[in-house]
Amino acid sequence: MNRFREGLLECTSIQCLPARNMPAPTAKGLILLCRPGFETECAAEADSLTRQAGLFGSARPKSGEGIVHFIFDELFDWQQAAQALPFTAFVFARQRSIWVERVDELPQQDRATPIIETIRKLGLKFARLDVETADTNEAKTLSGFLKRFVPHIERALHAQKLLRDNMPELPTLHLFFKDSSRVDIGVSLADDASPWPMGIARLRMPHEAPSRSTLKLAEAFQALMTEEERVAALRAGLYAVDLGAAPGGWSYQFAQRGLHVFAVDNGPIAPSLMANGMVEHIRADGFNWRAPRKQVEWLVCDMVEQPSRIAQLVADWVATGRARRSIFNLKLPMKKRFEELRRCCQQIDARFKLHGDSYVLRIRHLYHDREEVTAYLAKTLASPAEQEKPKRR
């Protein structure tokens, strides 16, 4: 299954399942893990996506909890719900699973049996088990309990042949623990969830990198691109432009892969980064500088600026062919983050429509992001027949 969808927030409409001649409608809703403080945006996005898909529901997000339970108004087959609401359509959810069951009031003397029995009744086998909590200080107190408890669950699942490590095409089982007495059970299709548990990318900080912002781009390469795209676009000898580069955290990611970098910033670039000869420091304003006559593969941008200005700048570079692809951050305002993000997406769409060009836009609120979201943008080549079709949005 392709991990990525072209365009932004694309969903497939489905209808509520009839009672007869169809699989059991087991999807109660969505379990959405997010950065604490972004629950409202996560819920608003879920509401928008589900409405597009014809799956109506609601959520009551609470700030600081790091999780949103979006509850469907009606029950749906979980596989169709997963296909209509793919993980890659979400921006603010670090992890998404289809919520199928809840087990609460777990007895202290035997918590495992009710959980295993509930999983068995689902009638599914799984390739992977993800044990999840919210990314909060309160939830971190569960780490000791889960470290002792989860091996019992894994052994029981293997013993009953419900967990099949050698069959990656099977779904993933998600167990979300609010505390030691309650677990929500979620499922996701193969390759339709974050590859990292809880959507948290545990990346090692390179000791020679100039700043911790380097981890944002490292995570973006993994989260927003396919393996084929990484192989093609991160080859030694290609050229990259880094707007707002100082002190060089993003330029480092390219230079250590052998790409030539134009680091554009009036501020200083780390001397250690300049030493290998792969980075050329350009003291200029990122909004006004133009690349020399070289084919630029990458434009990256982490400038602190109004998100609409960044969206317009990046769209111009890619739409006009000055750069083949881009990764950039949009620093969202404290209020109306979701609305501002939609405006930026509309700007980008309008820019590409000027010449009828197709494009791919993928956006994610990464683990290493704070108030910003990170986006990948590239122009796509369409056949003459495809050019006659309506552009994806």
Secondary-structure-derived class: alpha/beta
The CATH homologous superfamily of the largest domain: Vaccinia Virus protein VP39
* Uncertain segments: 1-23, 383-393
Proportion of residues in extended strands: 15-25%
- Supply the CATH class of the largest domain: Alpha Beta
- The total number of structural domains is 2
Describe this structure in words.
The protein has 393 residues and is α/β, with parallel strands linked by helices. 30% of the residues lie in helices and 24% in strands. It contains 12 helices and 14 strands. The chain has helices at residues 39-53, 78-84, 112-121, 137-140, 143-159, 214-224, 227-233, 249-255, 271-274, 307-319, 337-353, 384-387, and strands at 27-33, 57-58, 67-76, 95-103, 128-132, 172-179, 182-188, 239-243, 260-264, 279-282, 296-301, 323-331, 358-364, 372-380. Helix 8 (249-255) links the parallel strand 8 and strand 9. Helix 6 (214-224) crosses helix 8 (249-255) and helix 10 (307-319) packs parallel to helix 11 (337-353). The chain is elongated. The relative contact order is 0.11.
Main features:
disordered C terminus; seven-stranded mixed sheet; 24% strand; alpha/beta; 393 residues; Rossmann fold
